[in-house]
Amino acid sequence: MRRNEDKFPDNGFEAWGGYMHAKISKLEEQFSARAGTEETLSNIFNGVSIYVNGFTVPSADELKVLMSKHGGVYHVYQRSDDYIIASNLPDTKVKNMNLAKVVKPQWIVESLAANRLLDYRDYLLYGTSRTQKQINFRKIIKENDSLANDIKFNDTKQEQDLSEIHKTINEPNTTTSDQKPSKERLDNATSLDCQEILKQNLGAVTKTAADPEFIAEFYKNSRLHHISQLGACFKQHINELRENSNFQFPAREQLKEIILASNNFKNLSQLKFEKNKIIMHIDMDCFFVSVGLRNRPDLKGKPVAVTHSKGGQGRSKRPGVDRDTEFNLYKQNKAKKLGITTGISHDEIKIENRVDDIDEEDSKYGSMSEIASCSYEARAKGLSNGMFMGSALRLCPDLQTIPYDFDGYKEVAYTLYNTIAQYSLDIEAVSCDEMYLDCTELLSDMNVNVQGFATILREEIKAKTGCPCSTGFGGNRLQARLATKKAKPDGQFFLTEDLVEDFMYDIKLRDLPGVGSQTAYKLESLGHITCGSLQTLTLASLKSHLGNKTGAQLFEQCRGRDPNPLTFHTVRKSVSAEVNYGIRFENNYQCLEFLKQLSAEVHSRMHQFKAMGKCITLKLMVRAKDAPVETAKFLGHGYCDVINKSVSLQTATNDLEVITKEVILLCKKQNIDPTEMRGIGIQVTKLDYVTSRPTVGAINKFLFNNKIPKAKIKSEIKAELVETDQRNNPTTPTKSKVSTSPKKSPIISIKSPTIRKRGRPSKSLRQPSNNLMNKFLQGQNVGRDVPYKDPMIRAVVKEEVERKVEQSQTPRGLLGLPWNKVRALLRAWLDSGETPLQCDVVMIIDYLQEMVINKNIEKLQVLMNFLRRTTRDTGSVAWLEVYNRISEEVQNAMVAVYGKKLYISN
DNA sequence: ATCCTCCCCTAC
DNA sequence: TAAGGTAGGGGAGGAT
């Protein structure tokens, strides 16, 4: 029995042990009861279980009946081995699901028609057909055509080449066992393409970054890449759920009913009203392992690790490898740094720790594959995530390894998030397997106590995903998180207010979020290991040792306090891609090609997030002077110097050519021998957001070709902001010329959702408070009788203004241009006869709304009249639509600002 | 004072 | 063999 349960003896929730099972079996009982009334007609679907996702034809109910009549199983909750029947899935779902078993309902229908179970793979919703592999094979050739300058394939030629390649591959004695295939083989190949294909299919050559397929291959296998991508993905998912939700949660009602219906559960009702906030932290237990064990129940209870390595001995030593020298460099560097400053890089400590774990002789040639996740049984033997397999095997010779299952992680994470989302959307996504939930409102609404809710939720998650999780509760995010740590594995813990002080006293500083090895080391050298001990330090002292912010944060944290609220909506601030593995160039050409590819990767991500950026940073890892050329870890980066160089553009861009050009320029400036490079990264910051395709619209072209002096724009924007700020601060006298109703002005910088639902600025303004704003604006007839006296609203206003000031440091779109210039631009745009682009329209709307907000009504009238006349003159329907939309949005802005539409005279 | 660049640190 | 990514917070120190 875990300690935390001892602290909370019988409060009835043990009875919940079977809650999910009860719920599921009840639903399934109903199903079989109903199904049982019909006789079984066939056994076509014997051994097949389905889960229906969304609207289908036949409907879920019909499918249910069909399954039961023909020997199959219908699940109300999705289980891991279910076929998922769906006719279409929303984009977000598609992104987050393992699509390998998402099947069209036709599969069922046609199987019935054929009176046998057809191959589901022919009915995959997003399927790659079974012949896909061959198609890909040809595609490689086509894609690489540009490289094969002189040789063009026609179809027949392709066939010949392919069969030749197959022949080559299949001849046993031609496969080389060396690191490289024999030179002659490559020279005999008919083209560069064939060489590539040969290399790939022989598997004899390991891909390095010089290979055009390397980035894709690397990312496909990189755990860190997946962790990072999934995390971002679920943050976005929550953003979207919140934007599209009506904040009704049917699961709550369901739960309430079950609670009411059952005597067993009555004592779960919340007896007292919890007046403080209750934050819940949910974290899956050793996530990767748990997901992997779903298919390997035989390994449950054993020490298990997820890794690329198969667990066998590492290969024999490669020539040139000198682990001692390399590890010593890390150690020396650490010592050197410690002598001069307390700062030590994360990486070195990480490596150093690993080195410490390794018995020199034993592990000199052990596998350097990293452990992504290990089970609690393995942890008991001293293993930890990130450890090398070599040292892990030494500590735990019977360690079982299982491979990665990235699709599985995604699927489970998706199920996890959607399960929680049935109860509340006050979720802060931390990563694919971890989140915070503000359940204050939820608990009082459902009239359930904390432990009861935790039990229900954990049961439900386990039932749906097959994976255990732990949850912690507390008055703030820090407490919730520490509670989870105590609860693990597969437990729950409520850190109540009265326990906090004692609880914090023994918490290790290293266990505080934000305190990593470096900070912990510094604190340790100050003589502090635990929170209790650190509480004796003064705020000033902490600040002087760790910096202002970090010091202040730690001061609060070691007392169990955490002023940071949950953030439900996230706005991305940078986009980057980096590869520090497999970087081995032979010449400048390969390096350049790689830079181009990596730029394309960043560009495509920017495109995906609709982001434009102003600042481009290139990060290079270069072999340090004394480091061995051959790294200890196969194709690793080894001991390196790191260089960061950035360039600030005048205008935000999402243009691939611009990015590539700047990146190459930055790289060339460093003048580094490409053969010494070990890692490359590209980051884009100072983001702006667009709604359009990255197509350069007419206005963008205009802006791009007519570079506006930075200083000028900056000063104009600053002036504008000062003005806005003043108007929005009730205590500051307003300077507006057209002040129709001064008391209403504070609300105006908040653009109503209808005004700001598109366009880049809306993104930055759409913050957690937006929901509040939404409700407020919808419920209150904005502009009539402005209730900004409400302190809550005022706080929101202030927040929005501050954010606006912060976001508007950079000029964007048309803002900052004089109105007559915009008029000229509009004319040129209309005259050009080009189809209006969404991004341009949004920019115009932004500009005009800005005029409304600035009460620049006269100039606005001129522009609107001009726009109306010229639109009429063009006689274009597309333009008429554009005009109508612009007009509508401007009117909306007027309602928000003045409380009424101002009709612009002709 | 405030901003910018180049780091470092942390988290998953 | 092996797949050492990525985003955000923050600090030091120089430029303005």
From TrEMBL:
Its EC number is 2.7.7.-. Coiled coil: none annotated. Residues 40-125 form the BRCT domain. Mg(2+) binds at residues 283, 433-434. The keyword Nucleus applies. One of its GO terms (biological process) is DNA repair. Residues 170-179 have a biased composition (Polar residues). It is found in: Nucleus. Binds 2 magnesium ions. Its cofactor is Mg(2+). GO terms for molecular function: damaged DNA binding; deoxycytidyl transferase activity; DNA-directed DNA polymerase activity; metal ion binding. Its main location: nucleus. Residues 754-763 have a biased composition (Basic residues). The keyword DNA repair applies. Residues 279-516 form the UmuC domain. Deoxycytidyl transferase involved in DNA repair. Transfers a dCMP residue from dCTP to the 3'-end of a DNA primer in a template-dependent reaction. May assist in the first step in the bypass of abasic lesions by the insertion of a nucleotide opposite the lesion. Required for normal induction of mutations by physical and chemical agents. Belongs to the DNA polymerase type-Y family. This is DNA repair protein REV1. The lineage of its organism: Eukaryota, Metazoa, Ecdysozoa, Arthropoda, Hexapoda.
